[in-house]
Amino acid sequence: MKAYVIPDGQARGLDAIELADVPVPTPTPGHVLVRVHAVGLNPVDYKLAEGGNESWTYPHVLGLDVAGEIAAIGEGVEDTWKVGMRVAGHGDLRYNGCFAEYVDAPAYELSLIPDDVAYTTAAGVLCGALTAYQTINRKPNLNLVRTALVHGGSGAVGGIAVQLAKMHGITVFTTCSTRNIDYVRDHVSPDAIIDYRTQDVDERVRELTDGLGADLIVDTVSGREAARDLGRLAYNGQLVTIVDVPPVSGGQMFGGALSIDVVNLGGAHASGNPVEQRDLGTMASDILSMVSQGQLDPLITGVLPFSDLVDGLRSLADHRVTGKLVVDVDA
């Protein structure tokens, strides 16, 4: 089969990626063989190409987000899974991935794709959307959350997180650059947009919250931004970060009765915790149902042919992508 690979342990970076012929995998115990129809592109993909992983064997097939159909079933897989089922899932970065015609995927990560959701759409609501799902529907206690600041509303995580927060009736503000304001307004629909290039984020949060601060902040940017976010929180405020943990003192935490949560979506694979592993499929099912029912805009802004996959990763690495890029493997 054709697959995009890092050929050996010395090869690193986007220029090192090769389209190679490799054997079709055989499904291992607890796994199914998925015939790949579409894949999602994520920043973690180019970062892995640049940095590698100590668990890899070579040639290593890249790719984490897959949508396709079950072609074969391994030993020990529950009999609810059948050959021909349309499925999607977020993979384990330690093992061969889905930038290929077939992938060996653990059954626990998979969700059925609704009949009215295309493969390309399903592939686009995995890594980013599941991360967003955890920032809103898994980590924070939403009982007293009235206001939320979500960074990066034009991105695959932030844009979905804004939509999910609004489903809970929360008043949501988001940050973005000047050039993305129209896109965020039209597709994400927050209650307020903060242009971080021309506006003071601290000042705008104070204005939008009557000086109280935001009850919930989702940081998708950096540890430095997360440190600033601690000062933007309301009393009893919650910070959820997907990038880095900010330095914070006990006095600051107790003084504001603050809490910090960390999202590490793919870490569930290596956790050894079957409940957390199965939750990858559960969350994907929920997200795909929302898309099917028209409750969630998947924010897909580009569908590329398989031949342009590496160019898509370059666009991500160069920060030229708004929303989500996917690849149609059949094109």
From TrEMBL:
Annotated ranges, domain Enoyl reductase (ER): 12-327
A molecular function GO annotation: oxidoreductase activity
Keyword set includes Ribosomal protein: no
Keyword line: NADP
InterPro entries linked: ADH-like_N (IPR013154), ER (IPR020843), GroES-like_sf (IPR011032), NAD(P)-bd_dom_sf (IPR036291), Zinc-ADH_QOR/CCCR (IPR051603)
Pfam families, per database record: ADH_N, ADH_zinc_N_2
Name of the protein described by the UniProt record: Alcohol dehydrogenase
Annotated organism of origin: Bifidobacterium criceti
